[in-house]
Prior knowledge:
2 domains; alpha+beta
Amino acid sequence: xxxxxxxxxxxxxxxxxxxxxxxxxxxxxxxxxxxxxxxxxxxxxxxxxxxxxxxxxxxxxxxxxxxxxxxxxxxxxxxxxxxxxxxxxxxxxxxxxxxxxxxxxxxxxxxxxxxxxxxxxxxxxxxxxxxxxxxxxxxxxxxxxxxxxxxxxxxxxxxxxxxxxx
Length: 166
């Protein structure tokens, strides 16, 4: 049976289409969020987790389980292939350059440059030699009203992991 030009074009399009990537899924989510006027806190409420963790997941930094991915997929109208990619362990670290160029992210870089050694010294003095986990970790971001201009309160809580001798 002979294929029509339309069928041939459709088959060629599928055969030559680059595979969907996790970065593509993030772009789809952000686009749908903008188009639909969705708030991250509303997505988090539907998923049943914190807005900070769910936002990180939607931006490609966390792995959703099947139910969470299905919920995110439904909210943003994602295809099945995208929902499956939400369940794949991502390559962590989302900055495109070593020194961030986005002004808000650069402030975090600046904070670490200015206060990093102080934070390290105070953690070591209080807990000993080790690190603060970014795996067993909680993050909370809230608006704090202030007469001089609202403030951003960021609370980070990570399990202390002591270095072991062997």
